[in-house]
Design brief:
Shape: elongated
Order of helices and strands: HHEEEEEEEHHHEHEHEEEEHEHEE
Number of helices: 9
Length: about 375
């Protein structure tokens, strides 16, 4: 921590809200009179030495202004997302967000703590400052941690090969570059997406699953005057384009920016070619059939399913095996099915999630309508239908 003090084994509540020293920061433990006094007397920045230093002689290790750090924000070793916060912080593990520490004069709640660890883009200056420091020992012992795997975006910002850890001398410090802890960023390289799309169109198992999902969706929508289908994990849109031939509207979403970019190219030009960055992998060229529609289909790259995605009577989830926290996406899938009050049907295709395992998440609110397993060459995919 910034003050160099040891961390006792307190509960997270005490860590977040205990205020032991005076600092230019708001506290949830103050009385209303103390809050009003602070608001009228101290509701502003203060000189660095206005409050007493720590035992190590450091001023403003907490409060006054956020400490803006050179380090990029990234997950610790073993980082995993929680099912309730699938995209809360991991989207900022992109090499464009820096670490900010310790809260500011306006911070409250768990931000009003010496343990507050947050992030913002590099241009963020509101309520933030920086600390000038000089190493007492060898300058090479000072570490700055960078994320060396900027994600690919649909704006074609580009991606760097981040599968490495190396040291560079930068501004007299030791800069260590790490791969992003974000699972989606690590999976969205040109080579990995090339395999993803090649399997989508050429792998026998994917072809069988695509055929079965299309048949199930066709049966479901045959009884509806208006059919809207949501495909979660659409890859480059093969199944989505199949659904477009009989659904009134189809929305395909995926966490992969590269896959969605390819889907958008297919929608626009009806023919597209995907190339890998490896010379050992042949370019993949895909063309739509004449009966496959493009006007009634939309594609979105999403790291979560927002509330704006609603009113679908068919929800197909094929993404569970490709995300770091499948429980989160399955819970959201359940919500989308429940929104239809019995009129919506959900279909899940997964190697890991069979009907029995999914019942722990979907039941008792949803009923299992059908379950089947497709087997081919020692590989199995479970397809379950829920209402």
């Amino acid at each position: 921590m910034r003050s160099g003090m040891s961390i006792e084994l307190w509960s997270s509540y005490l860590i977040s809200f205990t205020l032991q020293e005076k600092a230019n920061i708001r506290s949830n433990k103050w009385t209303q009179q103390q809050q009003q006094q602070w608001w009228f007397d101290y509701n502003q920045l203060s000189p660095v030495n206005f409050y007493p230093p720590t035992s190590n002689g450091l001023f403003d290790t907490m409060g006054n202004v956020w400490d803006w750090c050179e380090d990029h924000f990234n997950g610790f070793d073993g980082f995993k997302t929680h099912r309730f916060y699938e995209d809360f912080s991991s989207n900022t593990f992109d090499g464009r967000h820096h670490l900010i520490l310790g809260g500011s004069w306006i911070s409250t709640g768990n931000e009003a703590s010496r343990f507050a660890r947050y992030t913002f883009r590099a241009h963020f200056i509101q309520h933030a400052g920086f600390r000038l420091a000089r190493s007492r020992d060898d300058e090479r012992k000072t570490l700055v941690r960078y994320v060396d795997s900027a994600p690919f975006t649909l704006e074609n910002i580009g991606i760097a090969n981040g599968n490495k850890e190396k040291e560079d001398k930068l501004y007299g410090v030791r800069a260590i570059k790490y791969t992003s802890s974000n699972h989606n960023y690590k999976m969205d390289t040109r080579s990995k997406v090339h395999k993803l799309l090649t399997d989508e169109y050429n792998k026998s198992m994917c072809q069988k699953v695509n055929t079965q999902l299309t048949q199930i969706a066709r049966t479901i929508t045959a009884e509806n005057n208006q059919s809207r289908a949501l495909l979660i994990g659409c890859r480059s849109g093969r199944t989505a384009f199949e659904l477009s031939t009989f659904c009134d509207q189809v929305v395909g979403v995926d966490t992969s920016s590269r896959a969605i970019e390819f889907a958008k190219k297919l929608k626009q030009s009806r023919t597209a070619t995907y190339t890998s960055d490896s010379t050992d992998e042949k370019p993949l060229t895909i063309s739509l059939r004449k009966d496959q529609e493009t006007e009634n289909i939309e594609f979105y790259q999403l790291t979560w399913l927002p509330s704006e995605l609603t009113d679908f009577n068919v929800v197909v989830n094929t993404l569970s095996d490709r995300v770091s926290c499948p429980q989160a996406w399955l819970l959201r899938t359940k919500e989308l099915i429940e929104e239809q009050n019995g009129e919506g049907v959900g279909v899940v295709a997964s190697k890991e999630w069979n009907g029995e395992k999914l019942s722990d998440i979907f039941a008792p609110e949803l009923n299992l309508i059908s379950s089947e397993t497709i087997s081919l060459d020692d590989e199995q995919v479970h397809i379950t239908t829920w209402n």
